[in-house]
Amino acid sequence: MAEKAILEFLKEEDEIPDSQVFAASVGIDHTDLENVIKSLRGFEIIESLDIKKESFVLTDEGKSYAADGSPEVQFFLAVPPEGITRDDLKKKLGDNIVNIGLNWAMKNKWVEIKKQLVFRKVENVEDKVKDQLKKIEDGEVVDKKEDIDALKKRKLITLQTWKAYALRKGPKYAPERKKAATDLTREHLQRGDWKDLEFKEYNLCAQGQPIQVGYLQPLLEVREEIQNIFLQMGFEEMPTNNFVESSFWNFDALFQPQQHPARDSHDTFFLKVPAATRQLPEDYVVRVKRVHESGGYGSKGYGYDWKREEADKNLLRTHTTAVSTRMLYMLAQQKPFRPKRYFSIDRVFRNEAVDRTHLAEFHQIEGLICDHGLTLADLLGVLEDFFTRLGMSKLRFKPAYNPYTEPSMEVFSYHEGLKKWVEVGNSGMFRPEMLLPMGLPQDVNVIAWGLSLERPTMILYGIDNIRDLFGPKVDFNLIKNNPICRLGLL
Ligand code: PHE
User: In this protein, which residues make up the domain named Aminoacyl-transfer RNA synthetases class-II family profile (predicted)?
Assistant: First the structure.
């Protein structure tokens, strides 16, 4: 309706000089008209020039005086020749009109007060205020600046700014708008009507849709950073694609005795089907059994009856050290021996009560170096190098115990945010009872360390509940909006 009004008007006339006036003349709300103007202008059907207009409008008070007369004139007319009290006037006109009217009638010297009575001082008065207000209401001009100023001061009028447009035909003007096609379709080509169609122009300034790409989960993000750190330090990644392990590789080969509490079903998930492993390297199994039962290689062993059924039990691996053990065993079979640096980052499982910081599964990061004559100093050095690259350069070490390492150390790092030392990993030198039965040369040592992937990730991303990081409750928007994380990579 607004569109039709504009286009038809411009068919006959060159210009709509003022859209406000035009809107009023055709009885359309100017905001509606404005929307149509913007759309027509976008399609170059019309051209428009912005005009800013200022004009005075009456306030509510001004409107009432324009209708009923100014309060001073109402007051004057209510005063009879014999005089009247103010209270009687108030009964006739109301408090407001009397208060304002008396004030102005006195200023104008129209009335006087004698002995509590109000008398007229002049015969007739003119209501100039009412006349001026009516003029403004009708859109006429009030010439004298002091009149305008007086009305403004009495808050009977205010200045209003209007936005309006001057309109003309645009290059694509037509008395009726053709709907522009947005796509060239197969049907257009078949019918041949594409020749007569008008196509919508590309709007190169329009905002694009957010790109739908894949997003890395924070754990994967940090995993990649840590992978890079290991690769830069010359480590090779171990294959970690078997979540199911035998107890043999998870515990026995690590010189972890069969009655160790970690091997209880309260701590470890054992498999029902298949409950037992089918193959183990038999000659190595014999050596492992012997070292548990009676020792050797300078060790006394544990002195108990080692049971094959216990070693055969399948489980969900409780640490990635099971993988390291397999790899070391394979390395020991290669002659001549060649030093190696290995790492892994993958999932492990423990039968734990789930809370804010624990799940029954998590990721372990593990690094190891296998070489001739390594010492505890080498371990301290490599830990310092590794953790510094992770952004944790203030380190402390505390003696610890693992069945498979001696000596063992827990690693603590000073957390600047928390202002305290937090445990960040576990480490040690693998025992001869573990390495020598594999067939590694006598003078070869292995230094190793492990930590969880979740811990540094939670610290880096400021997540304090592990369930917000891993599992079904993770908010996808968190993953989408997270910055690509940077560790202390040099
Ligand atoms: N396997 C240990 C753990 O699960 C970590 C570790 C790895 C400790 C290597 C020493 C050496 O906590």
Answer: 221-472
What would the pLDDT profile of 223-281 be if each residue is shown by its tens digit? Answer: 999 999 999 999 999 999 999 999 999 999 999 999 998 898 889 999 999 999 999 99
Query: Which pLDDT value is given to residue 157?
Result: 94
Q: Which atom of ligand 1 is nearest to the CA of 426?
A: 8
Residues 324 and 244 both lie in one domain: yes
Q: Six-digit token pair at 421?
A: 């030392």
* Cut 0.70: pTM above it: no
384-402 per-position pLDDT tens digit: 999 999 888 899 999 999 9
CA 430 to ligand 1: nearest atom: 11
Residue 321 in contact with ligand 1 by CB distance below 6 A: yes
Of the residues 263, 361, 402, which should be mutated to test ligand 1's pocket, given the most ligand atoms within 8 Å of the CB?
A: 402
Question: How far, in Å, CA of 67 to CA of 301, rounded?
Answer: 113
CB 111 near ligand 1, within 6 Å: no
Report the pLDDT value the prediction gives residue 160, as an integer from 0 to 100.
Answer: 86
Asked whether residue 405 is domain-assigned, the answer is yes
Nearest-CA residue for ligand 1 atom 8 is 427
Q: So what's the pLDDT on residue 487?
A: 54
DSSP string, 168-187: EE-TT--SSPPPPBSS--HH
- Which alpha helices (DSSP H) does 14-144 contain, by range? 19-26, 30-42, 60-68, 71-78, 86-93, 95-107, 128-137
Q: CA 438, CA 114: separation in Å to the nearest integer?
A: 127
Quote helix, strand, coil % in the chain, to nearest 5. Answer: 40, 25, 40
Domains in the chain, number: 3
Asked, for residue 359, whether it belongs to a domain, the answer is: yes
Ligand 1 binding pocket includes 431 (Cβ within 6 Å): no
- The answer, yes or no, to whether any atom of ligand 1 lies below 6 A from the CB of 74, is no
Range of the domain at 304: 219-481
Q: Are residues 118 and 141 in the same domain?
A: no
**How far away, in angstroms, is 469 Cα from ligand 1 center?**
23
Report how far ligand 1's centroid is from the alpha carbon of 289 (Å): 22
Which residues, given as ranges, of the chain have pLDDT below 50? Answer: 488-490
Indicate the burial class of 10 (C-beta count within 10 angstroms; 0-12, 13-18, 19 or more): buried
Cα–Cα distance for residue pair 343/341, rounded to 1 Å: 7
Candidate of 256, 321, 342, 380 to mutate for ligand 1, largest count of ligand atoms within 8 Å of Cβ: 321
